[in-house]
């Protein structure tokens, strides 16, 4: 039936001849399948896919071919670097008539990971990690990178120091003339007054970008997330009871950090194990109406 339908992309040439860098589609909904440590199942994703169009006179590419090739991601086996490489190579092959030599794919999705409470047995909740995969096939060279967003809590060291000084002054004003003080008296004073000043803390975001070798057996998403959260020390929590909230307060109190500290921790934790690490951290300040930010690694800037 298609043989009798007109195909303008083949029967006509471009009115204004010019080569184009990329042509394709954006925002395609599809499922992807992941099967690696701690992750197993279908996930909803959004895909952008394009090929180059070096033929200056070709009217248009064959977008349905790209769509059909992409559609296999959600129906076949789990997503791996090798599957992405083969997909992009097939996309280029499908457009030989357009002289295409390159293809690229972007996938946006999110992992939902079950995370336990800090201290309450049996309590846990779901935590969301936005993921972006960028894959390209250019001149028969495959490249793949992953970008992950991780939320954590940060407490300002300067603010903590200033708060301690105010509490110290208040203690000396109230009890500085006492020749001796019992532990019970000091404890009672602290219970009433230790929050005379509190350091500012805030939800913060780390954006991590790494290159994934084409021969890697899987994407390694959860191990990367776990390593980042261990380096930061205070990832945001899901389900909590009062004991967990208290434990989280203690973690923040012993884990003071500037935005510079967070970026350096992540860089040191990742640079020996992952190629081409790029880090961008943002502390969504509660003191200011603006954010504090830091960049590190090969993709900083």
Beta-strand portion reads: 25-35%
What is the string of SSEs from the N terminus onward?
HEEHHEEEHHEHHHEE
User: How many helices does DSSP assign?
Assistant: 8
* Number of DSSP strand runs: 8
Tell the overall outline.
elongated
Question: What value does the Rg take, in angstroms?
Answer: 27 Å
Largest sheet: 8 strands, antiparallel
Mean pLDDT: 92
Structural class: alpha+beta
Strand order of the largest sheet: 1-2-3-4-5-6-7-8
Unreliable stretches (pLDDT < 50, length at least 5) are: none
Q: Residue share in helices?
A: 25-40%
Can you tell me about this structure?
The chain is α+β, with helices and mostly antiparallel strands. It is built from 8 helices and 8 strands; from the N terminus they run αββααβββααβαααββ. A hairpin with a 2-residue loop joins β4 and β5. The longest helix has 19 residues. It is elongated, with a radius of gyration of 27 Å. The model has no long low-confidence stretch (mean pLDDT 92).
């Amino acid at each position: 039936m298609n043989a009798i339908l007109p195909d303008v992309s083949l029967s006509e040439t471009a009115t204004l001849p010019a080569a184009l860098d990329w042509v394709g589609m954006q925002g395609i909904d599809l499922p992807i399948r992941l099967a690696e440590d701690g992750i197993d199942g279908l996930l909803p994703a959004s895909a952008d896919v394009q090929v180059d169009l070096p033929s200056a006179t070709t009217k248009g590419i064959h977008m349905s071919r790209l769509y059909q090739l992409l559609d296999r991601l959600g129906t076949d086996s789990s997503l791996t670097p090798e599957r992405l490489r083969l997909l992009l190579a097939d996309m280029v092959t499908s457009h030989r008539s357009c002289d295409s030599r390159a293809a690229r794919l972007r996938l946006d999705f999110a992992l939902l990971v079950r995370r336990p409470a800090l201290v309450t047995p049996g309590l846990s909740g779901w935590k969301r990690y936005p993921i972006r995969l960028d894959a390209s096939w250019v001149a028969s060279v495959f490249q793949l990178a992953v970008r992950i967003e991780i939320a954590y809590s940060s407490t300002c060291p300067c603010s903590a120091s200033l708060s301690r000084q105010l509490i110290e002054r208040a203690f000396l004003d109230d009890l500085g003339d006492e020749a001796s003080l019992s532990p019970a008296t000091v404890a009672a004073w602290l219970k009433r007054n230790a929050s005379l000043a509190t350091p500012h803390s805030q939800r913060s975001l780390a954006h991590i970008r790494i290159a994934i070798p084409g021969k890697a057996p899987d994407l390694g998403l959860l191990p990367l997330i776990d390593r980042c959260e261990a380096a930061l020390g205070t990832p945001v929590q899901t389900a909590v009871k009062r004991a967990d909230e208290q434990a989280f307060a203690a973690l923040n109190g012993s884990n003071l950090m500037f935005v510079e500290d967070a970026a350096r921790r992540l860089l040191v934790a990742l640079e020996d194990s992952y190629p081409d690490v790029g880090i961008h951290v943002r502390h969504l300040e509660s003191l200011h109406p603006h954010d504090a930010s830091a960049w590190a690694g090969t993709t900083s800037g």
